[in-house]
Design goal:
The structure is a single chain. This protein is mainly α. It has 2 domains: about 1-30, no CATH class; about 40-95, no CATH class. Helices cover about 65% and strands about 0% of the residues. The chain contains 4 helices and no strands.
Length: about 110
């Protein structure tokens, strides 16, 4: 059963919508979305952001905790919740222990 037939079976009155979606999607099938090299650059940017995100969030919560109330309470509550998670993340990234251990970090040897 083709894709169009499945849509007709699910929604017999939606044939006009399926036709429009097919027309809109068909010219874009062979278009290259990213020029060469952009995917590698985006991967390195995403890696950098994922590595610094916990620190940026913690600094922002610390900033909120240093503001006058009621913002202080939001920052303190956020730090109470995030600090154990940040500690576990750091232990995983640095020592290679726990669920946040990366494949390139090795756990310490017993002995």
């Amino acid at each position: 059963m083709g894709e169009r037939a499945r849509y007709r079976a699910m929604c017999p009155d939606c044939d006009a919508q399926v036709t429009m979606a097919t027309r809109l999607a068909s010219p874009l099938r062979n278009v290259q979305v990213d020029p060469p090299g952009v995917t590698d650059m985006l991967g390195s940017v995403r890696s950098f952001i994922s590595a610094t995100w916990p620190f940026v969030g913690s600094v922002y919560l610390l900033y909120l905790a240093l503001q006058p109330p009621p913002t202080r309470y939001v920052g303190l509550l956020g730090l109470v919740i995030v600090t154990p998670l940040l500690t576990g993340w750091l232990v995983g990234r640095i020592l290679g222990i726990g669920p946040w251990a990366t494949s390139d970090s090795e756990p310490p040897e017993d002995g």
